[in-house]
Design a protein that fits this description.
four-stranded antiparallel sheet; about 65% strand; about 260 residues; mainly beta
Length: about 260
């Protein structure tokens, strides 16, 4: 019960501090602010294998669409499988189904205007994570490849040159992600703070993610994670092309 009270207090304090700060950044710099929420379950099959299921729901400003904070921007469901051939090495693979919101955009070269729309995506990924402990600090490096396919969306693009509606064509994308994480792993502690930086590469550097947060172990089965994340978009063609501040809250049940 004491750990639960501490966890709730930590989450509340993080949100109280981060929400106004992020909103202030948003007003000054024109950046989006989002809230990402996840709920997941993990089943350990044996010492080497485990399976996972996760649901995620994202809210953001969508300022360019004229919406206030709290507008839904994405939800997804993911299935994963983890394998640990060695104590310091973890391999995982997964599939993710996504529904996300794309903002309206104008293509000057093609004289086309695309309305804001919800689209369906399928994503598969493969990862390898190596870890190393130095005292109470744990270092990990994850390399991930992901492939995303977006379905065609009918009648959302207006071709001004020919005065007609056109579909948003299907699109596929390969991305390589590299994440370095450092956490403070104190023995028998109910909390574990961490920081990480992640790089996205497609045809070039697409974006960077900087994250600071903490995991709270409520019990043998229950785990809560709270974090702040800054997403730095470096590619003009990247989705929505907006830097953003994010507060994340996640719950994981292990059995």
């Amino acid at each position: 019960m004491r750990n639960l009270v501490r966890c709730v207090a930590a989450v509340a304090l993080t949100l109280l501090v981060a929400l106004p700060a992020s909103a202030q950044f948003n007003g000054k710099e024109g950046k989006d602010f989002g809230l990402w929420m996840t709920m997941g379950a993990e089943k350990k099959i044996n010492k080497k294998w485990s399976l996972g299921l996760e649901f995620e729901y994202r809210l953001k400003d969508n300022i360019e669409a004229g919406k206030r904070w709290g507008a839904p921007s994405r939800w997804n469901v993911a299935l994963t499988a983890d394998y640990k051939p060695l104590s310091w090495l973890k391999l995982d693979a997964g599939y993710k189904f996504m529904r996300d919101y794309s903002l309206a955009e104008w293509n000057e070269e093609k004289q086309e205007e695309t309305e804001a729309f919800w689209g369906s995506k399928h994503r598969v990924f493969l990862s390898a994570t190596g870890s190393y402990k130095a005292g109470r600090f744990k270092f990990s490096l994850r390399e991930r490849w992901q492939y995303t396919y977006r379905h065609e969306v009918p009648d959302v693009t207006y071709d001004w040159a020919h005065d007609r509606l056109e579909p948003k064509k299907a699109k596929s994308k390969h991305v390589s992600r590299t994440r370095l994480m450092v956490s403070y792993d104190k023995k028998k502690a109910w909390y574990e703070p961490f920081v990480s930086v992640e790089m996205y590469l497609s045809k070039g550097l697409e974006k960077m993610r900087y994250t600071a947060g903490c995991e709270f172990k409520l019990s043998k089965h229950d785990q809560v994670e709270v974090y702040y994340r800054y997403v730095d978009i470096t590619d003009d063609d990247c989705y929505n092309n907006r830097d953003s501040h994010v507060i994340g809250v996640g719950y994981l049940f292990k059995f």
